[in-house]
Amino acid sequence: MSQSLSRGSELLGRVGGCISCAAQWGLRCLQLATANWHAIGTSLLDMSYAKGGESREFMSENNTKRYIEFGDVPPSVDEILQQGVSLYRQDRAAADARFQDAIALDPTVLPSYLCLYKIYTYQGRLDEAYRIALAGLEEAARQAGLSADWQQWTREQLCSASDQPSRFALYTLKALSFIHLKRNELAESRRILTKLEDLGQLEDVGGSVVTDLADALET
Predict the structure, then answer these.
(1) If the chain, 219 residues long, is cut into consecutive pieces of 10 residues, what is the mean pLDDT of each piece?
(2) What range does the domain containing 17 cover?
(3) Of 8, 56, 103, 169, which residue is most buried, by most CB within 10 angstroms?
């Protein structure tokens, strides 16, 4: 049992180590035609320094400096999000404030929640990560036309739900399972993972990684 717990802790430690390493190497820039929640989350994970301490960036059509392509979001919110991404490598408190500003400006823009709950998770601020992820999940469910209670979701409802909000909701539900795991709430994490599997979405949102971590902690 102690050996299994040790293995589980080692796996969780590797996740944390990857995050720590990512914070030393540079911002990864993605150019996406539409919002891809997994890709955006991965690029946030890879925030760090590029060679010479300069962040990797690209220019939008209106000549605005960009770091991550968040998809179809209002320009005013996108500008704040880009500022938050740029600030994260130097001033995490300022980045935190910018992401919160983005939510305050327009609570319907889903990537703002993603930015905030991701950086909170990376920093071990798990209660705050849970709170923001839950708020993002509720907003995404509202936009997708899904029940506010994810336990009530069905495959049929997902088929008729708005695509991008429903994908965000599922991705964020997976994130909540990981946050529960980090908070040593294994039963709650398992409950979410089981629901994602019942919905046929576990692999699509990358939930198998969380499942492997849960297995290592439970065995």
Answers:
(1) 51 44 26 41 45 39 66 93 91 95 98 95 95 98 96 94 92 96 95 96 92 87
(2) 2-218
(3) 169
